[in-house]
Design goal:
7 strands; alpha/beta; 7-stranded mixed beta sheet; ATP5S synthase; Leucine-rich repeat, LRR (right-handed beta-alpha superhelix)
Length: 177
């Protein structure tokens, strides 16, 4: 177990020189795919899931539009890779054992995501609590939020009420029984 924790820490270590060299979207793609997530680029329907098959082209050609982190090992430590992403409209975090409240706080404080993120799904992430969900209020352009199977969310009614007051146009879908 200690080995996997160490390996995940290595996968999630941010390489700022790499971000400078290849641009934020390429560097984030590399990080996400290394951790087992998938990305979809703006103007493309196909999900990129093969690290070795990452598309090449001029710097900035491929912009991440969607992230599917189902069963990936992404963790807080790597979230700096999200800072430069300007076109991400949807993120799915499902069965991510390393996602916790601090990750959702960091996500909601990322300026570019505050502007671009429209849809967010958080499913079966056992370390997420009410505190993490409430932090999402900073995602002011968020249109759709789906929450399911989050046993750490214990004050469901209060959390939902506060979030909907902060984001009145948010369509919130819950499956938290």
């Amino acid at each position: 177990r200690r080995f996997w924790g160490w390996l995940n820490a290595v996968f999630n270590k941010v390489d700022h020189e790499r971000i400078q060299a290849v641009g934020p979207d390429r560097a984030a793609s590399e990080w996400l795919l290394r951790c087992g997530a998938h990305v979809r680029y703006q103007g493309y329907e196909k999900w990129q899931q093969d690290y070795n098959g990452l598309p090449t082209g001029p710097l900035g050609k491929y912009k991440i539009e969607a992230i599917n982190a189902t069963e990936s090992c992404i963790m807080y430590r790597g979230f700096d890779y999200l800072d430069g992403l300007e076109h991400v409209t949807e993120i799915q975090l499902q069965k991510c054992i390393y996602i916790q409240d601090e990750c959702l706080q960091r996500l909601s404080e990322t300026k570019n995501l505050q502007k671009s993120l429209l849809q967010l799904k958080i499913i079966s992430c056992g370390n997420v609590t009410d505190k993490g969900i409430l932090a999402l209020h900073k995602l002011t352009n968020l249109e759709y939020l789906y929450l399911s199977d989050l046993p750490g969310v214990r004050q469901k009614e209060t959390t939902v009420r506060v979030l909907q007051q902060a984001l009145p146009s948010l369509q919130l879908e819950l499956d938290l029984e």
